């Protein structure tokens, strides 16, 4: 049986202080843009089914946050989703340390396949790994989006699941 970071969610605790400041949700559709204020989550512009949460959490806490809102960390399984993710992050101030996505791998097998949380293995034919991928295969079991040297270049990179980053949820 595989053990992935997702399997450890029952024992996860958040080390981030909770915030109660009002937040803004922007929903972008091809026809219009609307603004809604709420204090339950921090979200930037969305591509109707994608939600950028500008709140730094560990990968596991980000996963739990998404699941509490009836979604999951984004699965970039095709070029349509990839284009939506790139559009979404282009409308935000991209954090220098990156943004969590639903990538994970078995913590007991450093050379095991990457997969989408609760989903299929990553199809390497459609993967967008950074040229720097694998930064630390012994300790990095979660995946994030990272910017390259070119400001428009966004790719996938492995990271320690305990790093606190903003994240993207997908309905």
TrEMBL record:
Q: List the InterPro entries.
A: C-type_lectin-like, C-type_lectin-like/link_sf, CTDL_fold
Q: Which SMART domains match?
A: CLECT
Domain C-type lectin: from-to ranges: 49-170
Q: Which Gene3D superfamilies does the UniProt record give?
A: Mannose-Binding Protein A, subunit A (3.10.100.10)
Q: Where is the composition biased (Low complexity)?
A: 9-40
Residues in coiled coil: none
Disordered, as annotated region: 1-40
Q: Name one Pfam family in it.
A: Lectin_C
Record protein name field: C-type lectin domain-containing protein
The taxonomy runs: Eukaryota, Metazoa, Chordata, Craniata, Vertebrata
């Amino acid at each position: 049986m595989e053990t992935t970071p997702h399997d450890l969610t029952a024992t996860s605790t958040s080390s981030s202080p909770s915030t109660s400041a009002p937040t803004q949700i922007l929903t972008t559709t091809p026809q219009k843009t609307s603004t809604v204020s709420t204090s339950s989550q921090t979200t930037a512009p969305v591509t109707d089914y994608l939600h950028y949460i500008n709140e730094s959490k560990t990968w596991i806490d980000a996963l739990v946050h998404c699941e509490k809102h009836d979604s999951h960390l984004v699965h970039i399984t095709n070029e349509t989703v990839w284009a939506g993710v790139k559009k979404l992050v282009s409308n935000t101030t991209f954090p220098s340390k990156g943004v969590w996505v639903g990538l994970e791998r078995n913590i007991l097998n450093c050379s095991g396949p990457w997969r989408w949380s609760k989903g299929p293995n990553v199809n390497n034919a459609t993967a967008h790994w950074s040229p720097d991928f694998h930064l630390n295969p012994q300790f990095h079991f979660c995946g994030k989006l990272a910017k390259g040297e070119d400001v428009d270049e966004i790719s996938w990179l492995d990271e320690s699941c305990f790093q606190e980053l903003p994240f993207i949820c997908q309905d």
